[in-house]
């Protein structure tokens, strides 16, 4: 703090010496304004007396009346509480905590208790603190500790905390422009891809998203294209050459499909089917409104013709499955290809991305995980 005094003389004042408890406080000030900076941290808490002595050229001096002051220095660091990491995704984690007095904000973090990384210091003095760690590795344990410094420099450092980033199987990017559902893949450059294969067929599933839709495209190799069903939700639709999408919107990984779980099917006639989980069974009466398109690379239902495969494009509106999309959202998903080939030694087979080899595919606890991320993918 600044201590000041005024002094006058009929000839002239040549200096003012400030005193604290009768001891000199700094050097004599030889010119107006007569001030000195007092660092109160150099004295103990309690009562103290400040005064000043003015001196003229003839050596005459006069003390001012003493001023009593009480020093209450803040030497106590902030009290940290409620340190928490939430939400946590595969790549980000938001760390929050509170302090009992206004303080700045910073976090150290890394794979060990040596940390190695830190967030930029947020100098604003607040009591509710929050910073997000970005660019983390999925399915990894991170150590972190938080630091807050109050307005007079007292520093509080927390103990060590840990969190584990989510394990995801595929990161799905947001597209800057809506995908046209026409069975052509020229808009899918840079999209995330899931590859899987069956007895003789191979499949690649591409994914993108925007604020309105989840976009899924299948490219499947198949030498015999076959599809007989022509009515929506037809019984036995999956007995045709069909692609299927399973979605666990809450990623709660139940053992049977619940009301937050959905199944979408499209055969090579572009006939749609959809079902919703009902706890132990699937409700076929549920009907969503979504788009699909099929592009055949061969001749349908011609056993004498050797085909090469097909493309299926699908757009599922988020509103139809009760999802609000956003960066970091994790969904459980599986993709299935049903292959009908009555003329071959294996008349029917099916294979999926999650690699479920026995039992039904309708088991969310066995599906893989995808995560939506904000950075957009732009087509060349």
Description:
- The radius of gyration is 36 Å and the shape is rod-shaped.
- It is mainly β and 380 residues long.
- The strands form five sheets. Strands 15, 19, 20, 21, 22, 25, 26 and 27 form an eight-stranded mixed sheet that branches.
- The protein has three domains: 70 residues, Immunoglobulin-like, CATH 2.60.40.10; 85 residues, Immunoglobulins (Immunoglobulin-like), CATH 2.60.40; 207 residues, Immunoglobulin-like.
Features:
380 residues, mainly beta, Immunoglobulin-like, 3 domains, 8-stranded mixed sheet, 7-stranded antiparallel sheet, 0% helix, rod-shaped
> What proportion of the residues is helical, as a percent range?
under 10%
Structural class: mainly beta
Number of helices: 0
Low-confidence stretches: none
Corresponding CATH architecture of the largest domain:
Sandwich
Percentage of residues in strands: over 45%
Number of domains: 3
Shape verdict: rod-shaped
Order of helices and strands: EEEEEEEEEEEEEEEEEEEEEEEEEEE
Arithmetic mean of pLDDT: 94
Main sheet characteristics: 8 strands, mixed
Top CATH class of the largest domain: Mainly Beta
The radius of gyration is: 36 Å
Write the layout of secondary structure elements.
Layout: E1 2-5, E2 13-20, E3 23-24, E4 34-37, E5 46-56, E6 61-63, E7 67-71, E8 80-88, E9 93-110, E10 117-118, E11 122-133, E12 141-149, E13 155-157, E14 161-164, E15 170-174, E16 192-197, E17 202-209, E18 213-221, E19 242-248, E20 261-267, E21 272-277, E22 282-283, E23 291-297, E24 309-317, E25 330-340, E26 348-352, E27 368-376
Parallel strand pairs: 15-27
Antiparallel strand pairs: 1-4, 2-3, 2-5, 5-6, 5-7, 8-9, 9-10, 9-11, 9-12, 12-13, 12-14, 16-17, 17-18, 18-24, 19-20, 19-25, 20-21, 21-22, 23-24, 25-26, 25-27
